[in-house]
Amino acid sequence: MANAVSKTAYYTLGCRVADARKPRPLCGDTFAARFMNDEAKQVWERFKSFTQPNASNAARHQIIDTLVQEELDKQPQARVVVLGAGFDTRAYRLRGGRWLEIDDASIITQKDTSLPAAEAKNPLERITIDFATESLAARLAPYRDSRRTHIILEGVLMYLTQAQRRDMLAVLRDVFPQHVVYCDLMRATFQNKYSRDLYAVLTDMGAFFHDMTDTPEAVFLEAGYTPASATSVPLRSAELAGQRVPAFILRHLLRPVRDGYRIWKFERT
Questions:
Q1: 3 pLDDT band (50/70/90 cuts)?
Q2: How many angstroms separate the CA atoms of 217 and 232, rounded?
Q3: Does the structure show a pLDDT above 60 at 57?
Q4: How many CB atoms lie within 10 A of CB 93?
Q5: If exposure means fewest CB atoms within 10 Å of the residue's CB, which of 6, 153, 190, 197 is most exposed?
Q6: Could you give the CA distance from residue 62 to residue 122 in angstroms, rounded to a whole number?
Q7: Domain containing residue 131
């Protein structure tokens, strides 16, 4: 992931900061504001008018929170790897887990300054990687573990080519033979019809989606993963906000919207 993609972490951060300030937050990430520096505020200014996508961004975070917490309630000492972690604060908010965050050095340095790992209520380690020049396999090799591992890929896969996605999954299968992946997958038709304006701002920042398709889950199925769940981000956003009529319409009448952007949970055993 290039530096321009890393900067999109400020956008998702801004979504969670704005959400936490609402009377009825969808995600409620009260730690996110710790990272809201001047650069983050400048990026957020470009995105804050995208009301519905921003709410969906907070909802996708909450969906993954819930899925991971369900697993940690059963196995509190499980390892959780957040790849392309951005300003993720789950190690501070969720109950349980031994956490490993991986991202660009500029993000990890800021995280260490604004929210030190020692303050997390769960064991947390952070490691840096230059995704463009360093080997993910080499960086993860010291953490090789045959136990069931939970891997969060949030806001990551759309910025990778299909070949890069396959290579990443091959590394994960080698390092963590038994693992679960939590990721957001967007269909090309959904992006073209409902995310065009938002994507225009992202591309202006130098962040581009690659190899979008209407079957984004295929790369996982071809690699031998089993789908455990697929949760609609737009529908869950409406449900969390108590929007009964929009939720009903999404659930029953607008399947392309409902299924166009989902959080998937894939098992690999």
A1: low
A2: 14
A3: yes
A4: 18
A5: 197
A6: 19
A7: 3-268
